[in-house]
Write a sequence for this structure.
């Protein structure tokens, strides 16, 4: 099965640059990177958010156990687009891989990847050039404070709000399910009860 790139951003007007709007997109299929590349080329990274989604599917999500559906999630903290050679996007980024079982998307892998994305804009095309990722375990707090700097409190508010993240995740999944035409009404993390998709 070919992996299809579906992006909520396709519904937005093409942006000349990042504008700080929340963005999300998804990829579905069997994990064939060649097919993902071919489809991504059709929606070319005309916003920084599409470029970030592409990065998370190809560079981060590909290191997890693959599922039938890959749905990255962006919780944007701040955007600095003053330098088109180094656009900065701070965020609490996540990636989730799902398999469909009946009317439920069951999460098979994924995780949190907060940090700072660096992008370059050439004309109307954006490309991720680097990712400064917050460290794990005992490195989390010092690296988060270094990477987010004066934006740390805003990041902490976003990162620690599990209820809002789940609301956002459900909304992204609802849009994904609608656009894919999936007969899905629930999503479920391993070991937890299924939740309704809004």
């Amino acid at each position: 099965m070919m992996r299809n790139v579906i992006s909520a951003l396709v519904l937005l007007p093409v942006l000349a640059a990042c504008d700080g709007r929340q963005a999300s997109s998804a990829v579905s299929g069997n994990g064939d990177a060649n097919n993902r590349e071919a489809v991504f080329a059709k929606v070319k990274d005309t916003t920084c958010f599409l470029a970030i989604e592409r990065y998370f599917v190809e560079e981060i999500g590909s290191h997890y156990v693959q599922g039938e559906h890959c749905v990255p999630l962006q919780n944007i903290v701040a955007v600095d687009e003053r330098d088109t050679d180094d656009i900065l996007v701070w965020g609490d980024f996540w990636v989730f891989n799902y398999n469909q079982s009946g009317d439920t998307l069951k999460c098979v892998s994924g995780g949190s990847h907060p940090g700072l994305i660096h992008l370059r804009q050439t004309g109307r095309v954006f490309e991720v050039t680097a990712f400064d990722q917050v460290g794990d375990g005992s490195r989390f707090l010092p690296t988060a404070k270094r990477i987010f700097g004066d934006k740390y409190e805003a990041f902490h508010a976003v990162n620690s709000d599990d209820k809002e993240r789940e609301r956002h995740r459900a909304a992204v999944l609802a849009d994904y399910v609608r656009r894919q035409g999936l007969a899905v009404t629930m999503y479920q993390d391993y070991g937890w009860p299924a939740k309704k998709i809004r």
Observations:
- Confidence is low (pLDDT under 50) at residues 1-16, 20-44.
- The chain has one domain: 4-196.
- The first helix runs from residue 33 to 42.
- The chain is about 30% helix and 35% strand.
